Amino acid sequence: MDLHMVLCMLTDALSAEMNLRKPAEAALTQFETRQGFCSCLMEVIAAKDLSSQTDVRLLASVYLKNCVVRHWRNRRDSLPIGADEKVHLRQKLLMHLGEENYQIALTLSILISKIARVDYPREWSDLFSSLAQKLQSADVLTSHRIFMVLFRTLKELSSKRLTHDQKVFAEIASQFFEYSWQLWQIDVQNILHGFSVLAQNAPGFHQDDAILTCERWVLCSKIIRQLIISGFPSDAKSVQEVLPVKKVCPSMLIAVQSFLQYYGSFQETHPKFWEFLKQGCTKLMKILIAIQQKHPYSFGDQCVLQPAVEFCLNRLINPEPELLSFEELLIQCMSLVKAILECKEYKPSIVGHVMENKEVTLQEMKKNASSSVAGILASLLPNERVVLLCNILIRRYFVLTVADVEDWFQNAESFYHEQDFLLWSERLRPCAEALYIVLFEKHSQLLGPVVVSILKEAMSACPSSTTDLGQQMLLKDAVYSAAAYVYYELSNYLNFGDWFNGALSTELMNNHLNMRIIHRKVALILGQWISEIKEDIRRPVYCALVKLLQEDDLCVRLTAARSLYFHLEDASFLEQEFIDLVPACWEACFKLAEDAQEFDSKVQAINTISALINRTSEIVPYAIKLVQFFQKAWDESSGESLLQIQLLVALKNFVVALGYQSSICYGMLLPILQSLLNINSPDELLEDSMQLWEATISHASSITPQLLCCFTCLVEILERSLDHLEVAASIIEGHIILGGTEFLNIQGPTLAKVLELVVFNANNKGLLSILPIVDMLVQCVPAELPQLIGNIVPKLIFICLDGGDDRYPSKTVLKTAAAAILARIWVMNTNFLAQLMSDPLLLRNFHTAGILTEENILLCLVDVWLDKVDNAISLHKKIFGLALSIILKLTLPQILERLDQILGVCTSTILGGNEDSTEEESSPGSMQSSKMEIPSKEYRRRQIKFLDPINHISLENSLRESLDTCARLHGESFNAAMSQMHPAALAQLKQALNMA
Hints:
With 996 residues, the protein is mostly helical. It has 55 helices and no strands. The longest helix is centred in the first third of the chain and has 37 residues. The termini are far apart. About 2% of the residues have low confidence. The radius of gyration is 38 Å and the shape is globular.
């Protein structure tokens, strides 16, 4: 490979001129499969005379990384990099660890990690020893780059999940941990010494080296985390102490405390190192949390747990003034305390002890460990401190700040989502709320009266008539949050009815602009306390929510919409108490959807509308406005698939609610449906589109030309994916039931293609969903079978004759269903099936496949019918009986060999009766009584079942006639076969045929 040519191509690939860049990019792509290309790229990256051409070297590093990812591992579909070139590249990469450009160094570290994932330890066993050796004599920059490589490589190797790979990583951890830990400790001392020099403004401080050292230490911290988390099995199962936990955690905690000494002084004077302090302290606290979750019992040791909890509680309860602004640290402190309080391994367990058994069981070890942790936590969190922490959380961390209020007033919608929908561990207030919930659940009897006391204090200091946006109102807002989040436990100490009638409803009557602060929390409370809202106040609560939904502030309205949604979805929702509020509620929801700008707001509005549709018994009066809403919302949602999914769910609910009056929305619905069923529509919309289509067909009063046209799309959909076959089967059934002859005349060829596509490609579960459709076609239009199912009948025969179903129940069910369909065809269109089975090509194909043991396919089918009749439902047993009785009319001598079995099936079916059928399905009287003005899909399905010709054929008469024919055809052979029947079987036959 020509190095100069590669360099020229890289240079041209960075050109702004299209005529140079495009050919160069194409050439570089073609070079990927050539031997030596990767080596040329490595030469470009390492070339000293190209050090100034950073962009070319960076592009070369990206191409090298991509080429290694694609071609390093031996694959059938790509030409691998040669073994000699691999050796050269591994050596060259380790020789170029002092790369000055950060982006190139990062890319190379990722590249080395990708190679190590494949080659370590077999082909690159000396990787870590080589890196450690180079680290001993490296300058600050090179050591930083080596740590980058180590971190990326360890992260890559730790992600391998096979048992062997995990053992390999455990060996790395056992060999490499002590070395890494010593480097970490040395770097901490150097950093703290440098900070001391910097704080005193003493000479001798080298800022660039100090920054690299700090970054290297952060990488080393990540390496330590990776080794402890992935290199040692979790002690949650084994209760085996992980010694590195006791080494690392206390030292990391001391490091955090040491760093924090410089937090206040560096903020103004040394902003770069102040940012590092924030990053370092946050990273160390996150590592402590990760270790606690991975190794809870080792972390539960007194030397680890006690200082960690003490540090966190002190930071939360009595923080230094300058640390109040260090929200990231406070969040991590709260997260660690929360993780410890809710850790399931620390919860007491009741474990018995077998007398005279000296061995300590694993469960007893866990019990002892959890008891030890419980004792430590009890000493760290006595009742007084628990109450103090609860007060601090509510009075300090729940309270809105001035900046929060300003953000709310400037953009209420954004404020709502930032407060309520971001991950709790990312913001201080949501994190404090999460810790408070865990704390309250653990100490509910202690804290219940405390929270009620704070609530009464806040309500007394800020009466309902108060409109001043001061600390009293903000405290009330905070304690309302506290009461909302622990409604279940707090209901033992606070009567919701009295609270609502006394304070909350009064506050809602105060419409001052500042009252939006309280109104939002009232809306939250009404949604959280659903289970405690008695029937006598449900009506006022519904009225309150609708009123809140009509306010001007979007934050209040969105909170009210979510709470209303909870009520609408609640099992105890009282529709009669809400019915007169529906018109106002519709208007408020429509306006909310119109005013909302953010995606999450629109989804919430749509979800509330969807729930309201489900709860409104008379939807028709509001249909026109809903049609207008859905049309506008759909037009505005173009390109937003996630929003369109929510709209499709709501549309489906709308169609179902309209029932057989759904045609009034077809002007809006059908164009949407047609656009979605297009092959170019996004895949993520397919499932919900299919469900909407199924609902539309199931609730249509009649087939329309537009609905008929939609059916052609089913072929393209099923060619794309068979994942939604059950819904597709319901759609097909709906078209057959609804459209009848008109549908089959127009879409018959399409239906045949759909059935063929499914039957030849679906698995057993998919086939079981589509075979009832085939059975319905045989039942309804037996004369049209050659055109509709002629191509799939051979497949059904193949399913019946293919063995191996004894071990797979699903295959037995499938074979029984297919056999029943073939039996029905034999009864209703004998000539069609007989002609098809006599096809020499079909016979030859079955012999070739090795599934045919006799020359006659029909005789093989007879054996299947006899074998599967016991697995069939009552109707199918009758079909099998009729098919077998018709078989007796044939001249085949082999029939007499099966005569005893055939007569046994027919006799048991006649004497057993129609056991599975219900009076409702079989009685014409019941059909008449259930008939509606517009027949439902279920009614039409039952009508088809009732009119099934099988129901009107007498198996008794058919068998009697077939026996007479068989006797005439076979004469003495028939008599001989009959004489061999068991007397009891013969007696049953005579009883079934009413023969004397």
